[in-house]
Amino acid sequence: MNKSDLIEALAFEKGLTYKKAEEIVNLIFQSMTDTLAEGGRIEIRGFGSMTVKSYKAYTGRNPKTGETIEVKPKKLPFFKVGKGLRESIDN
User: Fold this and answer.
1) Which residues pair with 76 in a beta bridge?
2) What is the C-alpha separation between 20 and 33, in angstroms, rounded?
3) Where would a tag sit more exposed on the chain, N or C end, judged by fewer CB atoms within 10 A?
4) Per-block average pLDDT, block size 10, for the chain (91 residues)?
């Protein structure tokens, strides 16, 4: 499922126009992005949680040339699957 599939499913299930469903989905995604950008945590019971993990700088290697490079520190989103989702997929 991709974003447009989610929008179509919402529009169909709730009898909304495609444009209104798109606004709702975009609002949810933007709220989640803003929360993570501010260093917050998102938890959806039964589905999972998302946090931002910080990684320190390190010396890496370019696999194509073998040259060593300095990789800057970075922050990346991290998703931890919830028990309900894990169990429903496992069964």
Assistant:
1) 53
2) 20
3) C
4) 96 96 97 96 96 96 94 96 94 84
